[in-house]
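Give me structure tokens for this 368-residue protein.
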Amino acid sequence: MPESDPLTQIVPTRWHAGYRPRVGLLRLRESWVAIVQIVVAVTLAYVVARLVLGHDRPLLAATVTVSSLGLLRDARPSQVLHTVVGMLTGIAIAEVLLLVADPGWWQLAIALAVTLAVARFLSPSPQFPISAAVQTAIAFMLPLGDVPGERLLDGAIGGAFALLVTALLPRNPMRAVLRDAHAVFEGFDHAIARVVQGLRRGDRLRAERGLSRARDLQGPVQAWAAGLESGQAISRMSPFLQGRRQELARLVRMQEAMDLATRNLRVVARRVHYAVDDGEERPELADVVAGVQRAAALVGAAAEDAGREEEARAALRAIAATLDPAALLPRARLGDQSVVASLRPLVVDLLVAAGEPRAEAARAIPRI
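Here you go.
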């Protein structure tokens, strides 16, 4: 009897098999403004604490600055301030406890317990007490300053410069926001393309894949919303991003409409998945959905070029005028007509995303 093949086998790998230099360079390109922010803020905080105020070890000025800014793209002023307050809370608790107790292992345990409890009470964010506890531990292990509260002042200086560079050296949010928009429209196109293929070939599996891709759009849509919220917060604080406020507001309107559009796409995909269960090809209905796909691509192009919104609206209005199920598919089954009916709110959402007022977009759909 021949020996069976092993279930597992050794696969030769190299240490650099998963390393991609191009990806690293892209990360560096996206983070260079954040790096500049951190370096400038830490340097200024150190200069003020060490050279102006004469503090011997302004370590907390640096740690608060670095931790509050970070390399995450969500550097909205409220988020930076929230982190700064958490860290100053930890430093303040350590300062108070060290006034009444010498540093030691059990004193550190008490300090951390008090910090975590107080910070958890103050904020619902799970990161807030962690930031506070880290600074408590650092402050507890550092030598006391010449005067009480010296280390708390260092931390406040670091936090102040973190907020200052957020306003004066802001991270331009447009590139990240447009990247998020591209991810949403690309995912939308892939999902609706599978739905079209399912209709054209009578393929239930392809329709199911379209439904699965449509469900996966919720994450990119939420990421886009978070990026826009951060961008608007930064633009309100920074005088250098005032010119971006109108464009960000336009993209917020587009994102909100696309959130609804992706939800309605899931409805369309579910109805198509049910309709093609008989395995019959539906080329006419596939052409209708393909038209919506092409129009949605025009809306996606308008995310980067506002001048293309009118082109997208014109294409969508032409589709909207035909979406009377009985007139478009007079001899079709009820399931096929229900697919057309489900396209109506989807087209309205796409029109709103392209800049049409919702009331006018709704009037573009024929009454049934």
